[in-house]
Inverse folding.
DNA sequence: GCCGTTTTCGGCCCGACTGTTTTCAGTCG
């Protein structure tokens, strides 16, 4: 089965090959952009290429040339230009390009003059000392190559948001305690809330950058200093993560934060937008474009805006864009009004107790929801097929419903729904018969098994669940685990259309292992008029804290309060789900 | 290779740091 990921990897590899061959960098970047677009796309591009090929080219970043490559791939499973390009280079050379610090120029040099064709030959030639004869290959560079080979051979790929964010917050609080630091924060993909991040970008405002940098590289977590300058340092920590720190004067905090938050594509968009208005934007501020090539800040040119991000957007006549929306797909478009915020959430609609695989009692979960100011919690323990999660037989479920209702009466000031997270079986049947579902207040239907079935089977399976009159929410719809398993790949647009029609909500599961629906699919669901529900799937009291990750994912998809059932006033919600 | 409220041709963001060099190329974000 060909997927968007297959298309993305082919274009990314073509970009690598072209770069090694010394091709025009703009062509290389265009290839990379197609790879990103393919990776992010909510639609199955092969399916689209077969059904409505014209729509491919309508996508931003995909032109006639790339569209025809995708169409060829969709119809034949092959992409001749990719195959030809790959054949012009040693097969292992692309791996050499993955070594940090080695770019296309150096790899080509190692290939042409050193006979390096893959990681194995590179290591052998490093050991033999042959490479030292090549121009620009000094002892330092060779030593760095050797160390970085060792690093990529042991390092894991990207880090999940849920692992990186708490860690970054800890580093930020320690930086704030360093003498001379006036402001500190994290930026980059972490601030944009991407589901996984490559490294942690930190920013400090200070008038004494040198000593702040010295304090930073001396942090106990630092395993290796990759760069250490007056205003910028880069380190690798003992846990393998890379952390970059930039220091800027307090007066340009906003410009720097904007720049280091990215995305790269958003920065390019903003700079191009500035150019059109005869202005220049860099990390030191927004300046008038006086035609002088030299950086304006180094010539004492006064910035038009620099102190805050809002100032800069305003000076460009744009609305401030929340970091979550600064991805290439959003361009410089203003954010939707009523973009969801964490304070808008009024209820948790997916939670577990000790009855199945949770760690806390019904009453503990209910009291925690109340303590957090929620007006409602749905207790949704697992259904009978989830044996590994101690799923409830019909008999146990009947008793559990009574127990949940009893707590609901005992604890005042919060609505308690007796619910279930019912397995959607592989064939689309639910794990309890309808007459049992009828006894519940609330039904979340989720796939837990058979997560490798074909897209066609997955589509039929989820359509069947959407059609069940008792189902209100489709829980973690793909069943993916980040860095674990890809999960189902149904025809999402078909599902969203059906769910919009049936008034069934799709869940954004806040657990950082899942974040399912993912951001791009949230956007597609919204376009289809679908309702969404953000839940933590709490298995403990601490799990309520995971909500922030679901909110971030929702915001990245542009979710508004109106489309999110967890934000509705109780009356509206109650009327909706009782139907 | 992509794109268009100056353009279907001619552009395509900008600066810090490293290492190897006597002034800069390469890499990175």
């Amino acid at each position: 089965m060909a997927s968007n990921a297959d298309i993305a990897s082919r274009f990314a590899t073509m970009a690598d090959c072209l770069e090694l061959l010394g091709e025009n960098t703009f062509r290389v970047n265009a290839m990379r952009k197609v790879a990103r677009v393919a990776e992010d796309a909510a639609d199955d591009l092969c399916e689209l290429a077969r059904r409505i090929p014209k729509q491919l080219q309508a996508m931003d970043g995909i032109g006639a040339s790339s569209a025809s490559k995708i169409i060829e791939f969709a119809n034949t499973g092959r992409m001749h230009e990719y195959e030809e390009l790959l054949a012009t280079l040693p097969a292992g050379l692309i791996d050499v390009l993955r070594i940090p610090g080695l770019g296309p120029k150096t790899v080509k040099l190692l290939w042409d003059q050193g006979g390096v064709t893959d990681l194995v030959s590179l290591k052998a030639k490093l050991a033999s000392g042959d490479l030292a004869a090549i121009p620009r290959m000094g002892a330092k560079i060779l030593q760095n190559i050797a160390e970085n080979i060792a690093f990529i051979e042991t390092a894991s790929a990207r880090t999940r948001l849920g692992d990186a964010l708490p860690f970054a917050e800890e580093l930020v609080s320690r930086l704030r305690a360093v003498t001379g630091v006036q402001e500190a924060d994290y930026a980059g993909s972490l601030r944009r809330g991407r589901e996984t991040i490559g490294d942690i970008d930190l920013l400090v405002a200070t008038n004494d950058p040198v000593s702040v940098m010295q304090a930073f590289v001396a942090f106990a977590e630092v395993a290796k200093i990759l760069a250490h300058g007056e205003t910028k340092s880069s380190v690798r920590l003992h846990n393998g993560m890379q952390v970059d720190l930039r220091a800027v004067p307090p007066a340009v905090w906003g410009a720097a934060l904007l720049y280091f938050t990215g995305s790269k594509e958003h920065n390019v968009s903003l700079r191009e937008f500035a150019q059109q208005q005869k202005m220049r934007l860099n990390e030191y501020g927004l300046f008038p474009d006086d035609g002088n090539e030299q950086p304006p800040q180094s010539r004492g040119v006064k910035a038009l805006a620099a102190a805050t991000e809002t100032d800069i957007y305003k000076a460009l006549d744009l609305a401030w864009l929340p970091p979550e929306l600064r991805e290439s797909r959003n361009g410089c478009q203003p954010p939707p009004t009523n973009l969801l915020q964490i304070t808008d959430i009024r209820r948790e609609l997916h939670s577990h107790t000790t009855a199945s695989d949770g760690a806390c009692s019904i009453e503990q979960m209910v009291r925690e929801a109340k303590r957090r100011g929620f007006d409602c919690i749905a207790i949704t323990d697992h259904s009978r097929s989830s044996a590994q999660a101690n799923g409830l037989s019909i008999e146990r479920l009947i008793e559990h419903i009574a127990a949940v209702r009893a707590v609901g009466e005992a604890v005042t000031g919060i609505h308690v729904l007796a619910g279930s997270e019912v397995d959607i079986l592989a064939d689309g049947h639910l794990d309890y018969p309808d007459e049992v579902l009828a006894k519940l207040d609330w039904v979340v239907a989720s796939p837990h098994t058979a997560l490798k079935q074909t897209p066609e089977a997955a589509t039929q399976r989820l359509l069947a669940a959407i059609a069940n009159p008792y189902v209100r929410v489709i829980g973690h719809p793909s069943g993916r685990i980040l860095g674990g398993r890809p999960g189902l790949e149904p025809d999402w647009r078909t599902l969203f259309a059906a769910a919009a029609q049936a008034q069934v909500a799709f869940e954004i599961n806040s657990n950082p292992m899942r974040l399912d629906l993912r951001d791009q699919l949230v956007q597609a669901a919204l376009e289809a008029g679908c309702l969404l529900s953000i839940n933590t799937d709490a298995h403990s009291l601490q799990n309520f804290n995971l909500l922030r990750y679901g909110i971030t994912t929702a915001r990245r998809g542009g979710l508004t309060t109106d489309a999110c059932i967890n934000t509705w006033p109780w009356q509206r919600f109650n009327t909706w789900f009782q139907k």
Remarks:
- The CA atoms of residues 357 and 388 of chain A lie 8 Å apart.
- The two ends of chain A are 40 Å apart (CA to CA).
- DSSP finds 24 helices and 16 strands in chain A.
- The first helix of chain A runs from residue 4 to 20.
